[in-house]
């Protein structure tokens, strides 16, 4: 349960509190949202496209912060993680300390109402946070629109947005992000077979802000 910061649901915070306690007890960082291969896929794309190591990166719904640690190990220096859950940020701070990555910036933020200083990023990454917002029973459509508006505010023009989703197909995501974004690439994800039909359980796309 280590990625989404939304919806403002006590169960998210309770889950992160449990992971925080587990980390303090035995040093286990908890779940990796979408698994380790999802992080590898993101880092490989950045390396393949020679995205400069001094690019500013925002991890939206950072959870336990493990993706940021892996980005730091790959040489990325300007890293920020935000999460709606204070317990998630506490956990990611502990992980950051354990890994000796003091330069990773971590903040409690509601991405649907971001603070003024949250702006000017070259890259934004989302692994499951848009999914969580989409499941919010109170005005999910409106909140998805707020998400896109926030993304336009925090991401520089021509900046990259990498999204991993298990709720949305490629076509649906293209529709959700049609205002202000263009698709650059669909990243390969694991496929499943059911009833003779092959499909993807996870969708991973790279957009560029217009």
TrEMBL record:
An example Gene Ontology cellular component term from the record? cytoplasm
Which GO terms fall under biological process for this protein? methylation
Q: Tell me which InterPro entries the record gives.
A: Efm4/METTL10, Methyltranfer_dom, SAM-dependent_MTases_sf
**UniProt KW Nucleus keyword:** yes
HAMAP family assigned:
Methyltr_EFM4
PANTHER family this protein is in?
EEF1A LYSINE METHYLTRANSFERASE 2 (PTHR12843:SF5), PROTEIN-LYSINE N-METHYLTRANSFERASE METTL10 (PTHR12843)
Protein name as annotated: EFMT2 methyltransferase
């Amino acid at each position: 349960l280590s990625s989404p910061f939304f919806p403002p649901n006590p169960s998210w915070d309770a889950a992160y509190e449990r992971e925080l306690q587990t980390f303090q007890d035995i040093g286990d960082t908890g779940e990796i949202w979408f698994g380790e291969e999802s992080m590898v896929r993101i880092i490989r794309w950045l390396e393949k496209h020679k995205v400069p190591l001094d690019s500013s990166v925002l991890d939206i719904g950072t959870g336990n912060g493990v993706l940021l640690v892996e980005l730091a190990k790959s040489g990325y220096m300007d890293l920020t993680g935000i999460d709606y859950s204070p317990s998630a940020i506490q956990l990611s701070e502990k992980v950051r300390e354990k890994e000796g990555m003091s330069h990773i910036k971590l903040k409690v933020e509601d991405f649907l109402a971001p603070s003024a200083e949250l702006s000017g990023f070259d890259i934004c990454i989302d692994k499951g946070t848009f999914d969580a917002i989409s499941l919010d029973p109170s005005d999910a459509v409106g909140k998805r629109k707020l998400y896109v508006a926030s993304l336009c505010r925090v991401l520089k023009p021509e900046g990259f947005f990498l999204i991993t989703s298990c709720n949305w197909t490629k076509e649906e995501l293209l529709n959700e992000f049609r205002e202000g974004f263009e698709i650059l690439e669909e990243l390969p994800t694991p496929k499943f077979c059911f009833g003779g039909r092959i499909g993807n359980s996870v969708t991973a796309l790279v957009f560029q802000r217009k």
